Amino acid sequence: MQPILWRCPSCRGAFTREQDVLICMSCQSRYDIIGGIPDLRLPGPSWVDFERDRNFARDLIEATHGFSTEQVVRHVYASREHWDDERINRRTRQVVAAPTSLHSDIQGWLHPCFSTDQLFLDLGCGPGMLLAAAAAKGYQGIGIDVSLTWLMVARRLIADYGGRPLLAAALAESLPLADGAVGSVISLDVIEHVADPGPYLREIDRVVRSDGYIALATPNRFSLTPEPHVGIWGVGWLPRVLQKPYVEFRGKDYDFVRLISTREMSALLRRHTHCKSSILIPRVSAEEISHFSPIKARLATLYNRLVAHRWTRLVFLNIGPFFQVIGKKQ
User: Fold this and answer.
1) Cα separation of 294 and 236, whole Å?
2) How far is C-alpha 52 from the geometric centre of its chain's CA atoms?
3) Region 131-136: what's the mean pLDDT?
4) Which end of the chain is flanked by fewer CB atoms within 10 Å, N or C?
């Protein structure tokens, strides 16, 4: 870890280090370093209980000493209530296999975000799957996530692929980086979970350099498919005030989920960033389809054929299951 990389999330002052604490030289705020990863989270709304997360991360270091990365991932999932073995194993396999399957994204729509002489930021990096995939290609990234537990996993996964982990726990609305600190920001499946997308986008815009790139991906609010977090049809078509009560009526939680439409995304980007952006409708990857049921696989294959055509692609901008954003800061 290189403390000089990070800045105080409160005032953006530079840090000095004393043992396992970072101290801001401007405002004197102090932040613990846990397992080599600084905890730079400020108090604020989040789906993560910070104190519980810190305790679990500390326990994870001790409990998984000598474990492989796959065993650590399985241990994290096994700690979740009401998860059966099938679900634990499936999600573990997805994490472990992701660095390989993400190579097509790095060579494809994310390609402008990578440079051998510029750091990129993976915002909401989770267990570090994209960072590991990029490390295998010779790209150095920074990982920021609200979950210290998943950053402990990311540190291992990135090292497995020959990378140097540069990680910090922080909120997307208060990034611990200087202005223009990175060449690009990639943030996949994150914007729908932040409390307010405005501050999140403004922070992304702040830390990316001029002529740098941003890349986002998120489910589409007005998709004709079930809401991906809870598997319930029609959630996004309801007025926002009714979405959470409806999902809870169906017996599931719906905290910190706010799906965005392509039209709303375009408006947010214009209002809160200096980026000239395009919205893309991606195809479903062959790797994903291989895990689908036969009926779902046939539908995904049909979808891929439809989005390959210009006019049907315009339709799926509004009702497709998910979309991507690539933008360049002006």
Assistant:
1) 26
2) 21
3) 98
4) C
Q: Which amino acid is at 212?
A: G
DSSP category for residue 13: -
Question: 169 is written with which tokens?
Answer: 């726990």
Contact between 188 and 23 under an 8 Å Cβ cutoff? The reply is no
Nearest-CA neighbor of 41 among 219, 150, 174?
174
**Under 8 Å CB-to-CB from 82, ≥6 apart: which residues?**
none
DSSP state of 286: H
What residue ranges in 11-140 does DSSP mark as E strands? 15-18, 21-24, 30-34, 37-38, 120-123
| Alpha-carbon torsion, ordered 52, 57, 62, 64, to 10 deg | 120
- Residue 293 DSSP one-character state: -
- CA 282, CA 74: separation in Å to the nearest integer? 30
DSSP, residue by residue, 153-194: HHHHHHHHTT----EEE--TTS-SS-TT-EEEEEEES-GGGS
Are 191 and 308 contacting, i.e. CB atoms less than 8 angstroms apart?
A: no
At residue 300, the pLDDT reads: 83
Q: Are strands 120-123 and 182-188 parallel, antiparallel or unpaired?
A: parallel
- pLDDT score of 92 more than 60: yes
Burial 145-157 (b: 16+ CB within 10 A, else e): bbbbbbbbbbbbb
Report yes or no: 133 and 125 within 8 Å, Cβ to Cβ.
no
Q: Give the pairing of strands 208-219 and 322-329.
A: antiparallel
Amino acid of residue 230:
V
d(CA 50, CA 323): 30
For the CA atoms of 235, 237, 243, 249, the dihedral, rounded to the nearest 10 degrees, stands at -50
Query: Can you give the pLDDT at residue 3?
Result: 42
- Choose among 151, 194, 46, 98: nearest CA to 204: 194
120-to-26, 154, 201, 207, 326 alpha-carbon distances in Å = 26, 16, 16, 10, 14
pLDDT of residue 57: 97
Backbone angles phi, psi at 150, to 5 degrees: -70, -30
- Per-residue confidence (pLDDT) for residue 302, from 0 to 100: 86
